[in-house]
Amino acid sequence: MLSREVVSAKVLSEKVARGLTWKGIAAELGSGSDLLYTAALLGQSVLTVEEAAKAAEILGLTEEEARWLTLSPERGAAAIMPPTDPLIYRFYELIQNYGTTWKALIEEEFGDGIMSAIDFNMSIEREADPKGDRVKIAMSGKFLPFKRF
Amino acid sequence: MLSREVVSAKVLSEKVARGLTWKGIAAELGSGSDLLYTAALLGQSVLTVEEAAKAAEILGLTEEEARWLTLSPERGAAAIMPPTDPLIYRFYELIQNYGTTWKALIEEEFGDGIMSAIDFNMSIEREADPKGDRVKIAMSGKFLPFKRF
Amino acid sequence: MLSREVVSAKVLSEKVARGLTWKGIAAELGSGSDLLYTAALLGQSVLTVEEAAKAAEILGLTEEEARWLTLSPERGAAAIMPPTDPLIYRFYELIQNYGTTWKALIEEEFGDGIMSAIDFNMSIEREADPKGDRVKIAMSGKFLPFKRF
Amino acid sequence: MLSREVVSAKVLSEKVARGLTWKGIAAELGSGSDLLYTAALLGQSVLTVEEAAKAAEILGLTEEEARWLTLSPERGAAAIMPPTDPLIYRFYELIQNYGTTWKALIEEEFGDGIMSAIDFNMSIEREADPKGDRVKIAMSGKFLPFKRF
Amino acid sequence: MLSREVVSAKVLSEKVARGLTWKGIAAELGSGSDLLYTAALLGQSVLTVEEAAKAAEILGLTEEEARWLTLSPERGAAAIMPPTDPLIYRFYELIQNYGTTWKALIEEEFGDGIMSAIDFNMSIEREADPKGDRVKIAMSGKFLPFKRF
Amino acid sequence: MLSREVVSAKVLSEKVARGLTWKGIAAELGSGSDLLYTAALLGQSVLTVEEAAKAAEILGLTEEEARWLTLSPERGAAAIMPPTDPLIYRFYELIQNYGTTWKALIEEEFGDGIMSAIDFNMSIEREADPKGDRVKIAMSGKFLPFKRF
Amino acid sequence: MLSREVVSAKVLSEKVARGLTWKGIAAELGSGSDLLYTAALLGQSVLTVEEAAKAAEILGLTEEEARWLTLSPERGAAAIMPPTDPLIYRFYELIQNYGTTWKALIEEEFGDGIMSAIDFNMSIEREADPKGDRVKIAMSGKFLPFKRF
Amino acid sequence: MLSREVVSAKVLSEKVARGLTWKGIAAELGSGSDLLYTAALLGQSVLTVEEAAKAAEILGLTEEEARWLTLSPERGAAAIMPPTDPLIYRFYELIQNYGTTWKALIEEEFGDGIMSAIDFNMSIEREADPKGDRVKIAMSGKFLPFKRF
Amino acid sequence: MLSREVVSAKVLSEKVARGLTWKGIAAELGSGSDLLYTAALLGQSVLTVEEAAKAAEILGLTEEEARWLTLSPERGAAAIMPPTDPLIYRFYELIQNYGTTWKALIEEEFGDGIMSAIDFNMSIEREADPKGDRVKIAMSGKFLPFKRF
Amino acid sequence: MLSREVVSAKVLSEKVARGLTWKGIAAELGSGSDLLYTAALLGQSVLTVEEAAKAAEILGLTEEEARWLTLSPERGAAAIMPPTDPLIYRFYELIQNYGTTWKALIEEEFGDGIMSAIDFNMSIEREADPKGDRVKIAMSGKFLPFKRF
Q: Could you tell me the keywords of this UniProt record (chains A, B, C, D, E, F, G, H, I, J) (predicted)?
């Protein structure tokens, strides 16, 4: 029996067996970003039917397996919270340390509301720095005011 | 008896009583960013002696209370995790949904290591958009490779 | 020192001491709904400056206390989850039992996205029924598609 | 060995393999609502013997597998709480933010008691809106007063 | 400022200071059971206005404090779960050990539904036994079938 | 390899496959109650050697599988706490709401001690009621005073 | 307002202020063991009226405070679990490591049942040992067989 | 692939299949105690090479499986905490109720330190008693003073 | 009423008010290490009577407050686990990432046992490094073999 | 399908089957430390391509399995926190007891910042001692000051 978990596990297994990279796969899937495509392949976003067919070709998935990649996954189901991995934990730490600060400043600027995590996009880039290169992250989410009713 | 919690509570109480804004206070404290100063006043970072003296003047703190603002706080101690506030929760959700994706792409680009949350800076800005303004966040953290030993 | 928690506690204490009802207070605050005003007084939403002044008058709050009612609260901070109160728990139970069903049907109808809890409104009404009156709840939240990027 | 979990997993797997939709399946099962039938197929409610036989036909289940669909499931056993999926989480957030408000207003209207989650029905519909369509949810639960004894 | 917690604490303090018993207080409050009245005084149920006035007289409460006893409390808020007290824990243990058994037999007898904890009554009595007296508990809750919709 | 979990899973699977009921099986096992036998088959109590042999005959278990039914199980290991199933949760809710009341009244009647959950018996019956039949539960546990030493 | 917590805190405060020892206090309270009396003073057991009066005399408690010492406390309410203190944690560790072993051997010797923690007594003594003195603990609890019903 | 968990599961399965007892197996393994040997077979302690070879003979294990019994296990990994089984839970309850008492009395007698759970031994015996036999447990652990440095 | 928590809070408050450093205080207390003295003042270890008298002099404590510093504290009671503070969290992370490695190598070198955290000492020093100074930590704990019995 | 978990399990299984030691394997892998290589084989660090090839030869892994050893693992995913194993728990206890002390002294010496757990190295050695050999641990992590921005 297939499930999204089984398909995600196969994606990972095939990626390593074939010696592929996320960026390499992403470049072939379509015009979306590395982030979006990697998230979809890791079971956290969706591919279009065409993108899924392409992914199946690259990773040796069956047509039925590919179909699962086009369905909304149970987002976050496999996340370990608090994260145990140091790379992921640092983001968690930022929330713990700066969450109330972000809230204070966003509300002061925009009013009572939130930054959407759905109407949202982001990018990750290398920022060259003589003291050691830096990870540069840019996020942009629509401000949503609480509706008064 | 004083403690950082008592001082932080007084800061908040005085800010509202005096009708001040975080940005307004920050502009007077020194050359640091809004984010840094707001974090320090919320008990998540430190001020220099001069900045603390200035803050005391603005908020009506005693000299002893100001001294607490220059000491490393117990960072994150007051954070509610998972966050219950929708604004802060959305950042938590981003980690739950995209954490493994960030890890995959940062490691692919930089190798085995992490983005520092200590040698780190960030900014929050308003991004005008006809479909609704957006919250634009830029983060930059030094890449730290795991030391082999 | 004041805080939103202190103000919320005073609101509750004064409401009982003065023998007021939520609907009675709400009717005098302005044109918003009972739900919105009750939420604000319980520390889960904001009032406008005018509404807060009116609330202060009704409940005997000081001007400084009223000011706290106009500030974005730390939403959800006082919620007990899982809820221990049977009335609130039943809603939690509905999520536990039907959450995956709601997800399946909303995604089938709207695509990959969510119902906003921010651009959201709701009402609660009595529904007369010979077998016992019913609580009728109507919710409406904007559908937000996950942005592809 | 069969169990409700195994049967639910097969239902999901077959639904995707056959390219079916929940509404499509529901329309053939009987006169119940989409919600009820989807919940039952996801292991959160029961089907009648006739409905189960019909489901077996549509999804290629054995007679023994179909029998499991007629038995009261261990409701909620597979729910992730707090929900990690954004769509489901928003409902959880509504409880965190408005739970005490709902309690205050329902008790003010009905007295000491609860809204039943058992003698309960609901519907989900699309609400057309020029600013973006909305998810419209209607719930109705019998009010149950606490019995005095 | 008053709250239900403050009133409950005063009830307990006064009960001990005055050397009263729960049954003794209950006998004077009205025609309800010991269980109902004790629960109300411990902050888990409500008294009528008359009962609350009587309780205030017995325990030396103010009129305002008495009013809190007539309001629906935040049920269960002070419960420690899992219970640390051996007497209360034994009931928790019964659920852990026999919960699935109760479910199996109630569903077999009544169909898909639950025993109400709202339309519910119970009693606790001493059962004389030569091998050591026993605690005899009788519970009765209305069976509520899941509504099909 | 066999374990109690494997045997319990087979019991459930065979019961459904053979279309049996708990009461039907219990009636054939011996003179014990429905509750005791169902608990044992669900992995929460023990059967005698004779009862286990009978159960094996009814459910098609091997002799080795039957032997596991005579061994003290890891009680409660499979319980979900807090229970997610509404039927089981209602009992949990009763403890949350009335636990301190039960403690207060049992101690007032019996002194410092507990109701045993081991020297314990119970029954579940249908109580006919024109307003809807009720689930009637009778429990009896030996009172155990704390030994002074 | 008094409560058992307030009285326990005063007991501790007075014990230190007066430079007393638990064994010293226990020796004057009556014929019970050090363990029982220390537990009662720490809010985990009860004293008789006479013992409480004696304790009040030694520790400077009021008559009303003494009365609280004769009432069944909310046992275990102040325990930190898992214990953070190394001395207490070691006992927790013994359960984690040997709990299943104790269960296996007690059931093999006594049958299906438990060791009572209520009809229970224990002692702690110093065991001289040339390689370093040892803490010697003796426990004795009545075996309670699960009642068949 | 083998692991300690797989070997432990096989030990249990074979013990039941062969109708053996823990004491019976222990008597053949060597001069250690029942407790030590049972703990080792349950995956909580180690056997010597000779003892493991003997265990393999008795339980039909392969040489490779036997080798796992000589390796330090991940102690406590399979423990359920808080214990759900009544027999094991009673020990947990003793810590919850008496932990602070044990700490108070051990420190008063021995000074600042702990009872070792490593340089530790214990025994479990039947204590005949006309009012019902008792489980008698004797523990002895070396007192370890906190090293000053 | 005094307690160790109250005394620890006063120590911190006085330290800041008087502008003292931990090392400065430690240097005057006696011949113990900075670590030991700081731990004792933070409520995690004990001082001798003489050291406590000295501390009282430096920090302006009363004689009764000083006495609390000589009593074994409830170690770890105030620790936040998992640590939210980045400095403390990094140690937690080391356990998460390397705990099984430490176990593997210590057992391979020493046999079945542990490193004592009681017969234990440590030091923290600055290690000059051209690429940035390092925190150098040296720990030493007695190896304790599991006693066979 | 392969995954890091499957490969780690095979490494452990093969190590026991072949009678190897961690130090023995490490000595053949390259010039890194025992700690680093053991961590990598336990799924907590990475090997170079050459080291992985060598590991595959020693442990009988396939080329595809070896490739997994060169990829950044999900660090900490398999850790049990709080640790149940006494050896690993002692390190956890050190943080609980001394974490705030470490923070106080490191900040006093270095300023506002942390000890890196990434630019980090450590060693474990046997320290001969007539009173019993000791485990000697040396850690060194780069001090990272919080960047002001």
A: Lyase
